[in-house]
Amino acid sequence: MTSPVSAVEAIEKAMRDHIKVDATGLSPAVASAYVFGFDEAAKAIAEIIARQAEALQRENAELREALKPFSTIAGRFCDETSRRLKPDDHNVWGYGDDTLTYGDFRRARALLGGSEDAE
User: Fold this and answer.
1) Residue 47: is its pLDDT beyond 50?
2) What residue numbers bound the domain in which 70 lies?
3) What is the per-residue pLDDT for 115?
4) Are the C-beta atoms of 57 and 63 separated by less than 8 Å?
5) 85 in a domain, yes or no?
6) Considering its fold, how many domains does the chain have in total?
7) Is the distance from CB of 110 to CB of 95 less than 8 angstroms?
8) Residue 116 domain-assigned?
9) Are 11 and 46 in contact (CB under 8 A)?
10) Measured between alpha carbons, how far is 62 from 58 in angstroms, rounded to an integer?
11) What is the pLDDT of residue 58?
12) What phi and psi, each to the nearest 5 degrees, are found at residue 12?
């Protein structure tokens, strides 16, 4: 992961590279007096990004935790025989049009890295 300092530096560089000031007719000293706040803006943007990344990491951890029971159960039918007898599109449970298939369990297992065979 990018360190906060290098993230701020990267944002500052991007801002300097992409934000242009039309100072036609002004001396460089005068023009530079009108351009300020890059450092503060870059730090604020980096903080926003860091907070969002932390929130996404927490959400990811919660979702992974929620998938664990499905992954564990999928371990019982990931072998070749089970795959043949219980294809991914076969329903395990359903209510109306909402269904839970063997493939749903296998995908949960694959997302958690539980099996090379899971897709």
Assistant:
1) yes
2) 4-111
3) 62
4) no
5) yes
6) 1
7) no
8) no
9) yes
10) 6
11) 94
12) -60, -45
Spell out the residues 6+ positions from residue 77 whose beta carbon is closer than 8 angstroms to its own. Answer: 83, 86, 102, 105, 106
- Residue 79 in tokens: 């072998």
Task: Judge whether 16 lies within some domain.
Answer: yes
Distances (CA, A) of 20 to 24, 34, 77: 12, 12, 59
68 — pLDDT class (breaks 50, 70, 90): very high
Whole-angstrom Cα distance, residue 22 to residue 24? 6
How far apart, in whole angstroms, are the C-alpha atoms of residue 119 and residue 115? 9
Tokens of 18: 């992409």
Count other Cβ atoms within 10 Å, centred on residue 23: 14
- Measured CA to CA, the distance from residue 22 to residue 81 in angstroms comes to 70
The reply to whether 119 falls in a domain is no
The helix/strand/coil state of 117 is coil
Instruction: Reply yes or no on whether the pLDDT at 3 is more than 90.
Output: no
The token duo for 119 is 């897709």
What angle do helix axes 4-18 and 38-74 make, rounded to 10 degrees? 120
Q: How far apart are CA 93 and CA 100, in angstroms?
A: 5
Structure tokens of 30? Answer: 């005068």
